[in-house]
Amino acid sequence: MLIFLGLGGLVLAQNPGGQEVLSYLQDGGTEGKIRLEADSLLVVNYYKLLTESAKIKGVPGYRIRIFSESGLGAKEKQQKIRARFLTEFPGTDAYNRYDEPYFKVYVGDCRTRSEALKLYDQIKKEFPNPILVDDNINKR
Fold first, then answer.
1. CB under 8 Å to 111, separation ≥6 — which residues?
2. Which of 26, 31, 43, 71 places its Cα 20 to 30 Å from the Cα of 108?
3. pLDDT score of 8 more than 50
4. What is the pLDDT of residue 94?
5. Which residues form the domain of 26?
6. Is the same domain home to 82 and 112?
7. CATH number of the domain that 70 lies in?
8. What is the pTM of this model?
9. Edge-to-edge, what's the strand order for the sheet holding 59-69?
10. How far apart (Å, rounded) are the C-alpha atoms in residues 104 and 109?
11. What DSSP string describes 15-70?
């Protein structure tokens, strides 16, 4: 069985044996029943896409930024805000991030906007001015 994901006209897939699918099909597939001839430009672009996709961690989703500050003491404040959040919302992950020159805290791994808005409503009472952002989140 082969697993295919169509993306922009290219096919990203992996066969059950773990071999990358383009090589698998070019080598003859299962017992030589399938053979793929591909233009060299297509093959080059396919491998570029695989390389770029491997760099992306997580899946598309939403997080809520509860802290963003720069300057003296911002890093310590970031750590305190994260610790306070984890104490008040023990079932929800919180992440420190540094986007020069800002120290930020993001919370949640929400797959849908609806899920993120529910979390947003819960946190805004304790953490004023949260901001909902698109982000790559951890898989559950």
1. 59, 61, 62, 137, 140
2. 71
3. no
4. 95
5. 3-55
6. yes
7. 3.30.70.1070
8. 0.63
9. 94-99, 102-110, 59-69, 131-137
10. 16
11. -TTS-BHHHHHHTTSGGG-------HHHHHHHHHHHHHHHH--SEEEEEEEEEEE-
